[in-house]
User: Fold this.
Amino acid sequence: MPSRTNLPTDWHFARPDLARHYLNAFEIGLVSGITLYARRRHGKTEFLTQDLQPAALAQGYAVGYCNLWQEDEDPAQALAEAVRALAMPKTVRAKLMARLNTPVAKFKLSGKAAGVGEGGAEVEFKDANAVGPRQLRDLFTQFDQSKNRGLLLVDEAQVLAQPAHAPLEKALRALLDTRKDRLKVIFTGSSEDQLRAMFGAERKAFYNWASVEPMPLLGEAFVRDLTDRANRLTTLSLKPAHSLAAFRELNGVPELFRRFLAQYLANPFEGAAAAVAQCKRSIYAEGGFDKRMRDLLPADRYVLALVAAGQGDLHSGDTLKKMGRALGLRGAASRAVPQNALRRLRDRQILLAVGNGVYEFEDEAFKQWVLEQRERLAQSNSLHK
Ligand SMILES: Nc1ncnc2c1ncn2[C@@H]1O[C@H](COP(=O)(O)OP(=O)(O)OP(=O)(O)O)[C@@H](O)[C@H]1O
Ligand SMILES: [Mg+2]
Assistant:
């Protein structure tokens, strides 16, 4: 029988060493900005909000978190709220820490949520779209006056690299530059190449401002730990070998593994393989992949399927010939066809360039979906022959 005490209510796998690692890099003055990338659903946001944030608060930092990629919010507004939180007085931070230490699912740490108003350091934004360089500057001044040491967490930072946000990118860079000793920054995003463009291109505001590194991935320790927690809730234990196999089958994506566990716990008698299959189905249904695919141009769909299938050279004579045929062109497609398709797919944050003309999907689940569609199509073609 599973013990009824210590039942897991919290599924977060803590990464204190990793959090400490980055904070140490700041402490010893090695760097003041770090950029971390990892693909979609790999735990970036959870690491920022549930590991780094509490660890930094415990070390006396005021922390501001923002996600720049939110449909309902302008990035300047999101950023402003995070900077506002950096001016949070110590007393309010203590309350916040107490709240973070109670295992609640997740909540947003913004100026508003954290009650900065109580400390009086408040700037009202009457119009959500009205955050301009001046307001941002005022908020940074409030941070200066607070005498806090600050850690700014900017999630989905690649949004700043979009041409439309160039003024904000420039303003932010200038505001951060003069505060490097008291304000540290961690940027994250899923698109390595967009982040590299943002921090590695000479013409960009943030050129050479922060090192760009991969965020270490969750692996076997995560799988074993969560499997143990799940097994405390069921009499039909999941063997670690089975959950490790499920994790591999789900391409090592933490979010999918969490769903797999939930699925398994709901129907343990059906076994691990059934839970994997059900988990994939639920992701596909929610991902809106069908619509995402339909919204693409035919050439983009074709190129996407080739990338999913691991086809290396998208510009070979043979590929261009097949592409031309599939797209109903007179002859072979020109090299511009895959080139433009790849550019559009990168702009839409569907594909990532991982170097040397090799491309990968940002979202592993989408890739799996594309592959399965391909297989299904091939099967139905062979049935109809
Ligand atoms: N440390 C962790 N412990 C337990 N589960 C985790 C952990 N990290 C991530 N997960 C699971 O993976 C899911 C996705 O994580 P998260 O949202 O942090 O990913 P992300 O990399 O920010 O993704 P995106 O690029 O889509 O924003 C979480 O909702 C959770 O189910
Ligand atoms: Mg995220």
